[in-house]
Amino acid sequence: MHIEDGILQPKAWGFWYMVMVVFIIPGIKEIKRRVMENLAYKPFLAMVGVAVFVISALHFPVPVTGSCSHPTGTALAAILVGPFATAVISAIVLFFQAIFLGHGGITTIGANDVSMGIAGAFSGYFCWKALRAGHAPIWLAAGVAGFVGDLVTYLVSAFELAQSLHGNHSLTSQWMIFFLGYAPTQVPIAIAESIFTATVLKAIITRRPDLLPAFVSAGNIKQGDTKKL
């Protein structure tokens, strides 16, 4: 997921930066609105950002040029603070990881945020919303969100690499080759992230539901839900 500098062609990383900005602008507006509505949102958002930084800093080598496997934490973040806000904090996380940890690069923040902070966050969030709308238990909805968000991150990351590096191969075949390169490490990580997402969300809801005032008021958690976790 952390694609390094020099891997993507300039027109490719420039394009992904533009895609990122499309989500960052409404994300910043949403954060400002929520902070005005509830001052507790800002420190909670910062706490979620730190969690995403720590979770996505864990990395495992893969046989894919200029990249590596990671858990992401963005599906959980999207459930907690919203997917647009997650796109913003993910971009910030990727910047600091590039500067201080050497993960990824400055030119590839756009591409990495599109895969992790946008595709991973939104896909996980939509799974969560769809399953909760169907009255699935919170632990199941959260677990599926974590699993899907993780794998979608790497589907998109593989596509970004294939787009720049497919050469004489077809884009689709090179895309699948890159994704299969991730699979041996990423599938177990996705399963672990599924369990982690369900466990953390269950702990917050049962022990500190006051941390999620907007989440509770939106009707995602109703009376008796904590007994059905």
Automatic annotation (TrEMBL):
<dbReference type="Pfam" id="PF01891">
    <property type="entry name" value="CbiM"/>
</dbReference>
<keyword id="KW-0171">Cobalt transport</keyword>
<comment type="pathway">
    <text>Cofactor biosynthesis; adenosylcobalamin biosynthesis.</text>
</comment>
<comment type="subunit">
    <text>Forms an energy-coupling factor (ECF) transporter complex composed of an ATP-binding protein (A component, CbiO), a transmembrane protein (T component, CbiQ) and 2 possible substrate-capture proteins (S components, CbiM and CbiN) of unknown stoichimetry.</text>
</comment>
<dbReference type="GO" id="GO:0043190">
    <property type="term" value="C:ATP-binding cassette (ABC) transporter complex"/>
</dbReference>
<feature type="transmembrane region" description="Helical">
    <location>
        <begin position="176"/>
        <end position="201"/>
    </location>
</feature>
<keyword id="KW-1133">Transmembrane helix</keyword>
<keyword id="KW-1003">Cell membrane</keyword>
<comment type="similarity">
    <text>Belongs to the CbiM family.</text>
</comment>
<keyword id="KW-0170">Cobalt</keyword>
<feature type="transmembrane region" description="Helical">
    <location>
        <begin position="74"/>
        <end position="96"/>
    </location>
</feature>
<dbReference type="InterPro" id="IPR018024">
    <property type="entry name" value="CbiM"/>
</dbReference>
<keyword id="KW-0472">Membrane</keyword>
<keyword id="KW-0406">Ion transport</keyword>
<dbReference type="GO" id="GO:0009236">
    <property type="term" value="P:cobalamin biosynthetic process"/>
</dbReference>
<feature type="transmembrane region" description="Helical">
    <location>
        <begin position="40"/>
        <end position="62"/>
    </location>
</feature>
<dbReference type="InterPro" id="IPR002751">
    <property type="entry name" value="CbiM/NikMN"/>
</dbReference>
<keyword id="KW-0169">Cobalamin biosynthesis</keyword>
<keyword id="KW-0813">Transport</keyword>
<keyword id="KW-0812">Transmembrane</keyword>
<feature type="transmembrane region" description="Helical">
    <location>
        <begin position="12"/>
        <end position="28"/>
    </location>
</feature>
<protein>
    <recommendedName>
        <fullName>Cobalt transport protein CbiM</fullName>
    </recommendedName>
</protein>
<feature type="transmembrane region" description="Helical">
    <location>
        <begin position="138"/>
        <end position="156"/>
    </location>
</feature>
<dbReference type="GO" id="GO:0015087">
    <property type="term" value="F:cobalt ion transmembrane transporter activity"/>
</dbReference>
<comment type="function">
    <text>Part of the energy-coupling factor (ECF) transporter complex CbiMNOQ involved in cobalt import.</text>
</comment>
